[in-house]
Amino acid sequence: MNTPREIILARHQSAEAKLKGICAEDLAACVRSAAEPGLQRPPAFDLAAAARRFWQDTFEPWRRAWIGIGAVWLGLLVFSLATGETPRTTAAKPPRPDPEALAVLREQRQLLAQLLGSSALPLVSHLQTPGPRSAAEPPPGREEGAGRLETTLRAETFAQA
Amino acid sequence: MPVVTEELQLPVREARAGEPAAWEALLARYRLPLYAYVYELVHQEQPSLDIVQESFINAARHISTLQRDEKFGSWLFSIAHQKCLQHWRKQRPAEMPIDPADEDFPDLEPGPQELLIRREQEDALMKQLDQLALPQRAVLLLHFIEEFSLEEIARITETPIGTVKSRLHYARKALKKLLEENEA
Questions:
Q1: A44–B contact, CB cutoff 8 A
Q2: Residues B87-95: contacts with CB within 8 Å, 24+ apart?
Q3: In sequence order, which ranges of B11-93 are alpha helices (DSSP H)?
Q4: Is the minimum CB–CB distance between A157 and chain B shorter than 8 Å?
Q5: How many domains does chain A contain in total?
Q6: Which residues of A touch B15 (CB under 8 A)?
Q7: pLDDT per residue over B15-29, tens digit each?
Q8: B82, B143 in Cβ contact below 8 A?
Q9: What's the confidence (pLDDT) of residue B72?
Q10: ipTM over 0.90 threshold
């Protein structure tokens, strides 16, 4: 019983003599010559082949995915153009004050100034902030030690009572 | 069918170093199966001989690029397969066969291989093989001659593994049908 392999090889057995013409020495010489760096030609850059390879490696395996992404992008583009929306890349500006409100405010300020009797509202910045009490001068007519005498007299009055 | 296991002993490393004895061993192992494969695709003696020789020369020139020594066989067959396609394109571009069933197929059925062995219809097998479309014939030959795995056949023929499965399935089915018709 013969296997398909044996059947096929037996059919071509007659070619064996011709195939022996392929010389092992020549093949070994090919290997050695290819290994010598001086004999190796630098591979020429083929733009068409590179483009084809890029296409085959990048697009061919995921053709459907790329088509899907392209369709979605196209749909978004069409929708964007149809609605006339522009991307909001600039920061939102603060809203302008209403001119009517400004006029009312101005009127109210003028009215307040008239009521207070001056053309302008007094500024708070001219008021002096009080310093430490120790630095403050005693009121006129009162000398140093007067406080202490007053306290002593009050104590004596209380003892007599 | 006996499993082809000689790859383990093949002197690929020595061949890489440029030893003539190693190349002699590789030639002895592969020249006839490679010729049988090429001839069954090309059907012309001299071009087949040329393709085998060119394949070995290419292999010798580029053996440094071969990463796994145990894959030498499938690598050599892939070189020859490409040369066969080039030959086909040059000779009969209009008649480049198109595979009728390039689609994924779940699993391989037990085919007519065992049937063939029993019947010993050697001539019939070869005749029926010739009637198959080229892609199916190539897949079946690789399967028969070297018992390459589906992955290896896919690499040799540069087709997806699902396509290889499908082609092998349809080739076996077609072969079985032809043999049954022949028997009837």
A1: no
A2: B87/B42, B87/B47, B87/B51, B88/B41, B88/B42, B88/B134
A3: 12-16, 20-42, 45-62, 72-91
A4: no
A5: 1
A6: 27-28, 31
A7: 988 899 999 999 999
A8: no
A9: 92
A10: no
- Say what the pLDDT of residue B100 is: 43
Q: Residue A61: which residues within 8 A CB-CB, separation 6 or more?
A: none
Average pLDDT of every residue of chain B: 80
* Contact flag A4-B16 (C-beta cutoff 8 Å): no
What is the C-alpha separation between B12 and A158, in angstroms, rounded?
127
Chain B nearest-CA distance from A72, in A, is: 28
Q: Does B21 touch chain A (CB under 8 A)?
A: yes
Count Cβ–Cβ pairs < 8 Å, chain A vs chain B: 110
Within a domain: A75: yes
Asked, for residue A31, whether it belongs to a domain, the answer is yes
Which domains does chain B show, CATH number per domain?
Answer: 6-94 (1.10.1740.10), 113-183 (1.10.10.10)
Contacts of A61 in chain B (CB under 8 A): none
Predicted TM-score (pTM) above 0.90: no
Chain B residue closest to A29 (CA)?
B18
pLDDT-derived band at B101, boundaries 50, 70, 90:
very low
> Which residues on A lie below 8 Å from B141 (Cβ)?
8
Domain region containing A59: 4-83
Read off the pLDDT of residues B132-168 as tens digits, 9 standing for 90 and up: 888 888 999 999 899 999 999 999 999 999 999 999 9
